[in-house]
Design brief:
The chain is an all-alpha fold. It is 81% helix and 0% strand. The protein contains 14 helices and no strands.
């Protein structure tokens, strides 16, 4: 898996470098200079959808285990930053979030189950958001971006498979399958834990109101995330309507999510911005500058989160060693 991630990362870096070289680094940097301090505004705005995502995940956790919103935002912030900045598959950030939840005191089965359902709702809400973006694309009569429709199709297929696996008790089955090739009694605890996660999953899916409210928070998060595109293009001197920003955000996010195997969507995001930007009359230089604003935002928001993660882990080690 590490080798595969490295191969796709190398491919993403190559694509990213080719796009920058093709458009000319000078024009891209000039556009970024125009944006100036607007990049900081975009970075600060990101905490709005981040908090909404945390609220959506927190709603899935039973009241007796539910952390305060500030703690949920902190865990979500760290997990998202791991996904965005570290050269690893996107699921690693979710596993980090499970670990942080357990360190906070949430039972492992509850943490694992809520993370799984949160991922499922995230994909489902993104499919809805992307379909809305395609409707806006059609209403505006924008052509030449039909290839971006592959994003929601891949997401929908992933959602169907993931839901089927959850319904089949995937954690318990996977642990039992692994145990057949292992020796010792250590796997008994893993199987019991996996079965507990499956039981928690069924319990969460039985709480329909919590699911609906969580879905509502996630959809609201996708809509507020559109503000990054709107603000970025505003500061770049090429303002667009909210509907155009929504279309650009929904379709480029779908393409990046569909290419989840590429760490950080490097190169994929940039290609998506250029493709849909051309359809909206945005120059490739501006589209790349907008994508780089997103990258700068990831660094500005993500690096402090990674430092915070190391501090949390360091404190845990100090407590266990004393």
């Amino acid at each position: 898996m590490k080798l595969l991630s490295a191969v796709f990362l190398a491919g993403g870096v190559a694509l990213f470098a080719w796009l920058i070289a093709r458009q000319g680094i000078g024009g891209v940097l000039e556009a970024l200079e125009i944006a100036g301090w607007g990049v900081a505004v975009v970075a600060l705005w990101h905490f709005v959808p981040l908090a909404l995502d945390a609220a959506a995940w927190r709603r899935l956790i039973a009241r007796e285990h539910r952390p305060p919103l500030a703690a949920a935002v902190r865990m979500r912030w760290i997990g998202e930053s791991v996904n965005g900045l570290l050269p690893a598959a996107q699921v690693v950030g979710e596993l980090v979030r499970v670990r942080l939840s357990m360190l906070y005191g949430i039972p492992g089965a509850v943490a694992g189950a809520t993370m799984t359902v949160d991922m499922t709702i995230g994909v489902f809400s993104q499919v809805i958001f992307t379909l809305l973006g395609l409707m806006v694309l059609y209403a505006l009569g924008v052509g030449g971006v039909a290839a971006l429709a592959v994003g929601p199709l891949v997401l929908a297929a992933f959602l169907i498979v993931f839901l089927a696996l959850q319904n089949a008790g995937m954690f318990g089955r996977a642990a039992k399958l692994i145990s057949r090739s292992a020796f010792g009694n250590g796997w008994i605890k893993i199987i019991a834990g996996a079965d507990a996660v499956d039981a928690e999953l069924k319990g969460i899916y039985g709480r329909r109101r919590a699911l609906v409210e969580s879905l509502g928070w996630r959809i609201l998060s996708w809509f507020t995330g559109t503000g990054e595109i709107w603000l970025g293009l505003h500061f770049l001197g090429h303002p667009v309507s909210i509907m155009e920003a929504l279309m650009m955000e929904s379709l480029t996010q779908a393409v990046r999510s569909a290419a989840f195997i590429v760490p950080g969507g490097l190169g994929i995001q940039e290609g998506g911005f250029i493709l849909i930007g051309n359809a909206l009359g945005i120059s490739p230089e501006l589209s790349l500058a907008l994508s780089l604003i997103k990258r700068v935002r990831e660094l500005a928001v993500g690096l402090p989160a990674l430092v915070l993660w190391k501090v949390i882990e360091g404190r845990r080690l100090l407590r266990t060693s004393t």
